[in-house]
Amino acid sequence: MLLTATIDAISAATPRALHVRLRLDTPFDFAPGQAALVGAHGCGDRRPYSIAVGPEEAARTGRLEFLIGLGADGVPGPHLPRVETGVRVDVEGPLGTFTFPPAPAERSFLFVAGGSGIAPIRSMLQHALAVDRGWNVSLAYSARVPEELAFDSELRVLAQNSGLHYYATTTRHTGEGWSGGRTRIDRALLAQCVTDPATLCFVCGPEALVHEVPRILRELGVADERIRVEEWAVSTPADA
Questions:
Q1: Which domains does the chain have, with CATH numbers?
Q2: Residue 141: its pLDDT value, please?
Q3: pTM of the full structure
Q4: Which run of H or E residues covers position 201?
């Protein structure tokens, strides 16, 4: 499906990425975790971005949400030379197979994200919490410094109000004012999240994360068929 939408709201998600909301003129059906191609209206150059909102919330608000990474020049690239409210953009999709299943047999779920890999995870997380608040849902999220944890404040509130188990950690932060972890997502952290080997796990982030985390999950007793990964290197720190 190819449709045109309008940039409705923009906010800084991290120092290097924008949280962009697009107002839809036409409904856009997608599975939680999928992506879409986004580019300036009428421009043939469109780039893939994971949809960063759950399908239920998108249907309720009539908006799609994305994390849009910025280059050194402060713009996403030639496919999106202007990111301003009121600008029209083309959206094509959905695409991708890194999705939350429509009727999972499991009742425990672990989401692991590094850097901007939080975008599809946020979509799946919102969906899971909308479907069944009785599910056991955990999120482990890492970035270099606290400022690069997109949606951190929102996720903390969600953890307080929904029962989500949220573990945030930074790999390079050495300053004060941070109460979260100061390490990579390692075995000790994942062991807190996986209390049942019948946990369906979703891992999204840079190469090192999506290679290392599944190995640890297998050591913790999670079967391969319950580990789903997506490498999402766009605007993602290599050491998140």
A1: 2-95 (2.40.30.10), 108-231 (3.40.50.80)
A2: 97
A3: 0.92
A4: strand 199-205
